[in-house]
Amino acid sequence: RAREVSERIVESGVLAVLRGIDEDQIVPVARAIHDAGVGALEVTADGTRAAEQIAAVDRELADTDAVVGAGTVLDAPTAASVIDAGAEFVVAPDTNVEVIRTCNRHGVLSAPGVMTPTEAVTAMEAGADILKMFPAKTVGPAHIGALQGPLGDVDVIPTGGVSPDNVADYFDAGAIAVGAGSAIVDYDAITDGDMDLVRETAASFVDAVDD
Ligand code: 3PG
């Protein structure tokens, strides 16, 4: 299943990061972003009730081929909890081998955050499926090739500061997909309850990925 989930993320091209969204808005926001053409949604686990939110989004998109996972998973108990709630992948900003091993035990894709070769190798040796290059904005697209030089053709998803303006550069540099939060999730529109605008903003990002 982890391989299928990985393929689904690659097909989507973008992993949308949903962070700090209210209980009553998470489902319509997820639907709007999926309707925009996003096939991979990450609900972050830093807020309260992350497991419930993941389960709710999972239910909402059950009739689609979208994959729903968890982000900002900083420890193994949180990984176990979000996997129990139905997370199909687990993303983190850091490299935590216990989180990676918990995912492996459950056959769930893990994408730990890495910046340096040491972190990348630690993550790969622990069994990580994909490396989230984070924060991408401080190093830029060239960092992907620089890591792949000595490490081979590892699957990298740059995240942090990826926008419609620079997304093509990350794909040209070898990204298998990108992660995006503020540039794809229109938080002002969410505050206004304008789900049409949420969809349109996400669709603009998807257009940039497809170009
Ligand atoms: C996050 O921390 O929410 C993600 O890494 C996304 O970052 P971004 O808002 O810069 O895309």
- Which strand order does the major sheet show? 3-2-1-9
**Based on DSSP secondary structure assignment, what is the total number of beta strands?**
9
Rg over alpha carbons: 16 Å
Question: Could you estimate the helical fraction of the residues in percent?
Answer: 40-55%
**Largest sheet descriptor:** 4 strands, parallel
Low-pLDDT windows of residues: none
What proportion strand? 15-25%
* Count of separate DSSP helical elements: 10
Arithmetic mean pLDDT: 97
**Cα distance spanning the termini:** 29 Å
Overall spatial form: globular
Features:
211 residues, alpha/beta, 4-stranded parallel β-sheet, 3-stranded parallel β-sheet, 10 helices, 48% helix, binds 3-phosphoglyceric acid
Write up what this structure looks like.
The chain has 211 residues and is an alpha/beta fold. The chain contains 10 helices and 9 strands. α5 (97-106) links the parallel β4 (89-91) and β5. The longest helix has 16 residues, at 195-210.
Q: Could you give the topology of this structure?
A:
Blueprint: H1 2-12, E1 14-18, H2 23-35, E2 40-44, H3 50-60, E3 67-71, H4 76-84, E4 89-91, H5 97-106, E5 109-111, E6 113-114, H6 117-126, E7 131-133, H7 142-151, E8 156-158, H8 167-172, E9 178-180, H9 187-191, H10 195-210
Parallel strand pairs: 1-2, 1-9, 2-3, 4-5, 6-7, 7-8
Bound molecules: 3-phosphoglyceric acid.
